[in-house]
Design brief:
27 helices, alpha/beta, seven-stranded parallel beta sheet, about 50% helix
Length: about 700
Amino acid sequence: MTELRQAPESNVENINARIAMGRAYRQKKDYGNAIDEYSAAVNCLSAQDPAKGILHKEMGEMYMEAGDIDSSISEFSKAIQTGQYDQYTHLSLGELFCRKKRYDLADIEFDKAVDIDPSSHVFFQLIRIHKKYRRIHKCIAASINYVDKKREEDAAENKAILDAIKSHANAGSAGKELSVKILRMPLVERAAKDKHSYILLPPFGIGQLVAYLRGNDIKIDQDDLYVKVGHDNMFGKDEDRIDMEIFLDEKRVVEYSNGKEDEYIENIMRKLEAKTNLKYDVMLLSLDCGCPNDSGVMFVLALAKYIKKKYNAAILVGGHYEQLDVLMSHDLRNIDYVGFGKGEKMLFVALTALKYGVNLNEVPDKWLVVKGKEMINGNVPYGTKADYDGLPFHLYEYANDKRTTPDDKEFECILDGFNNSRLKVAEFELMDGCFYECIFCCLSNVKEVFILSPKEAVDQLCELKEKYGISNFMFMNSMINLSKKYVNDFCDEIISRKLDILWSDCARADNLDRDTLNKMSRAGCVRLIYGMESASPRLLRYMNKGLRMGRIEDVLRWTHEAGILVGIELICGFPGETKEDLDMTIDFVKRNKEHLDMCYCNVLYVRNTMRFFSEANKYGVHNFRNVRYYDELNCSVKLGYDEIGGLCWEDKFKEMQEHIKYMVDKAQKERDFYRFEYEVEHFMFYLFSKINDRNRARYLFRKAKKYLV
């Protein structure tokens, strides 16, 4: 800096020196000195000099970083007056007007940004800005535009990727046509003898991934070992059953994976190969989420060893990041790559590179980041419709042989019908993300929300019904009622097109009224689960929930009156939680028991994607460490912590266990508490598909707990 100050005055060198010094100060966040240098440079330029507008823009950015809104607006406006501006200038100016709550002026700037560059990137920035300022309707519109535009751009980008990879291939290489298969992995989930220990839902995420790859000319087969093993272990002959308990023996499986001979595990692998073809050039192994143990990871290690030894296939593993973190702690000698993030674009790039014999490290980082055995790429269009072709779809149909007690003739016919219903239920997703920032939510740090338009969502639902005969859907959204207008438009689309489906989803007590709930009922909604978490006003403020108890009670009553089953989710174990806080929640359940059909209670489950983790000191916790525990009361934890000035983790966890037992024991007398049970979900859809009287269906659903839970 000293040398720059010695530059001659009033000449080009001096102007450049001041700009360089200003940028150096800016890098150090010394905005006062940076502005002084920029201002001196600007004063040396003529009004017609294009550089003047560029400097005004940079000063606008600096004032924006420093939090001086008015000065930033002034500088950006000067940049625009000189003609030196772009879409980012208008986006920045629009956000500044949002800070001043001048949304009319903000929207003018946003429209100008779109006029200059109607790309997905601009819509992406608008999503972030509108979400930040809780402009929900604008965010929804920007998200729908983003999804449409991103798909257009994605096709062009994939062509560029293909051309770039071909250019790295050997001269004249036409590429080897690879045989590729994706497999959903089984895991150990225990259940009573007459209950399904596996989920009867086709894998929605894998279906989307397969649809994307097939849509981009990647030939891929798919199969579901999870449902095949679960079905055969429950209904099959002894010779068809697989001993999944062996995959809870980590030491033994790891030794097998690392080369030790184990004829028992080898025989299990051969029995698995009888269920699905494993002879492929590339095997994609997918780990499910929500596993209370490491059995899925152990299964991957064993299967990868077997496939690599017998067929020498390239093996790529993906799935839920928590399971992948566990996998990465082991020796991956039989696994080529582990993919983190969204899999669609990542696999398109990786499989294209493998086809043309190009090392994945030679692919530009903007398309695929490879670090050792880790692959990273989350860049993918949202809302790909699922393709389930090739999956054993008949195994997702419900069948069982549950019995009533001899004296319960009333329920016997209903249960017999359910046992033989062959009912199919599937997951579906209208959106990814959330507008709210509850500190315990894994989406609380996500700055984007991606949303399907009501028309496209219903188009996809229509196709799933027509192609696969699915009429019952579990929507996997953070909440269906992003806005009252969105949920009404979605329901209007279903009703106007006479789409006869039933569905369940999560919701907040915002953006709902009697008329909307009645319309949701007519559109096929059979249940809403409200994330209430607690009835303690103090804890609701702590968790940034943003709900009033009076409003919650009104919405629960209106939902009940609309003939929609009402569920609530509760969480125990927040820092500083007391028995008085729990008693408030128990009293709430007592007051509203006539309007509640089910309650789900869990302890606080900490993930590193939560605000609770990223802003730990703000929420009174520190010293996070890995812990793994699961029990029958949903007292499942992964990350432990100490309360600042309070309990250490060991004592906190004991308190958590006491609190959830206290909650369930006290409130159970008033309203049923449920763990998630696959058969309960299917029975709910069966009842509402057969019984038009929703009050009668509600009565039978509550009674079913005796036989299904």
